[in-house]
Amino acid sequence: xxxxxxxxxxxxTSVTFAQPEPVTKTKAPFLWENATVYFLLTDRFxxxxxxxxxxxxxxxxxxxxYMGGDVAGIIRKLEEGYFTQLGIDAIWMTPLVENITAGVDxxxxxxxxxxxxxxxxxxxxxxxxxxxxxxxxxxxxxxxQGIRILMDAVVNHTGPVTANDPQWPSDWVRxxxxxxxxxxxxxxxxxxxENLPDVLxxxxxxxxxxxxxxxxxxxxxxxEQEVRELDEFFARTGYPRRPYFYIVKWLTDLxxxxxxxxxxxxxxxxxxxxxxxxxxxxxxxxxxxxxxLYPKKKLDDTPFFMVGEVYNYYIGxxxxxxxxxxxxxxxxxxxxxxxxxxxxxxxxxxxxxxFEKYDGILHGALSGKTVLNYLSSHxxxxxxxxxxxxxxxxxxxxxxxxGMAQIYYGDESVRSLSVEAQGDAVLRAPMNWEEMDNxxxxxxxxxxxxxxxxxxxxxxxxxxxxxxxxxxxxxxTLNSDLYSDSVVMGVGLSAGAKTIPVGKFFEEGGRVRDSYxxxxxxxxxxxxxLDTPHSVVLLERQD
Length: 543
Hints:
Layout: H1 2-13, E1 36-40, H2 42-45, H3 71-80, H4 82-85, E2 90-93, E3 97-99, E4 104-105, E5 110-111, E6 119-125, H5 132-144, E7 148-153, E8 173-174, H6 185-188, E9 198-199, H7 211-219, H8 223-237, H9 243-258, E10 262-265, H10 273-293, E11 305-308, E12 321-322, E13 327-328, E14 337-340, H11 343-346, H12 351-362, E15 370-374, H13 391-399, E16 404-408, H14 439-457, H15 460-463, E17 465-468, E18 473-479, E19 484-490, E20 496-501, E21 511-514, E22 520-524, E23 527-532, E24 537-541
Parallel strand pairs: 1-2, 1-16, 2-7, 7-10, 10-11, 11-14, 14-15, 15-16
Antiparallel strand pairs: 3-6, 4-5, 8-9, 12-13, 17-18, 18-19, 19-24, 20-23, 21-22, 21-24, 22-23
């Protein structure tokens, strides 16, 4: 399988810069640079097992408590083929580790850790959303469909302090000051919000296991095993027993235990960048160990992938994030990609300007790396289309742009982003399965499915070079010694008869198919004539 790894490296570096000659397409490989990622809040997706539904001791504010979604629900949708119909390459889910049990008043009402970001124990799957056996089944089922799993990884903070949950000791966490974001130090050595303990990731002091974890593990009958594994980890690595090295060990156990394919790293800019380099190195080792142990279960030899949330990182910044007094290149500290906070603004630009900008940067300053584009998310109060009035165009812009594409659950089904709640809870309503029979929403869903399937079949869409054939027609090509792919895409076109210039992307006289309408045509004098009722044309070679 070394040939495939070499081939992926060639793929990213040997793209043609001139308009291409016609190419012969072989089976499309998986590339993270072209991946369509489905991001879901596990608790809000599907309630597949009502027996683990959480009963709140005190009622939460609207949309701020557990609502029943679980791993069993994700398994159900995998079995139904929901993700494959959308052309999904990877599922990113919120953290599955055990969270605190009590509610916390965040200033917007009583909230519980349904989102998974309030860690209590990194070594245990939260029983309110599933168990170890279900997680293994989910990953295996996803892999059987060619879908990879990204798990959210949190190192920066623990769960809030409550009267009912044990507190982390002062040599592990700080409880102040609040971050002011004026410099590197006031972004990293501080707490994000009140009552959210910040892990002392910069500390050089070695620490003992927190007493509350010792007592918890003993009560669960696994203290000796956890301690033995920690001793083996620190003996193998030679790392000092600082707080974040413990967490690195616990997070990479998720890879060894379940075979997950990557991490989406939460609050990355709030932690020293060297932490992420260590996490990546240990994750790669854990992924290799899992593949060696289960060679028949691995998808291929694609390396472990890590994408980071560096809040307010914009693709236009290239490889640097500026803290004001210091610039950091996170791509040199373990990250293969970063979430792109630029995209929701760039998506408002003319098609040609959007595509040419991303082509220039992804094949220039960010060559060999990538970004994860999104239009809505769980904590962005200013999404591209909050009122969901442009759901069709949103899908077109997201899924036909270069770079990775993140679908936030419900983007494809016009789930409301304006429910009666406060703060980020308005973005976190349950998935609107009950509305799927609505003809207008079904039309939007079908649009996203067509685009997602086309993108998945053609890595040139997200990972290839862009060529502007007009203001609304674009060619994409991806060429290497082992794989070639060319497509032509028309966007914002008039309904009815239309003529699509294809340049040299398809040979003269060659048959092509519009993947969007299903209609076929031939190349005559460098153009393809079609008559479709759609504004989108997705041309692929018809063999």
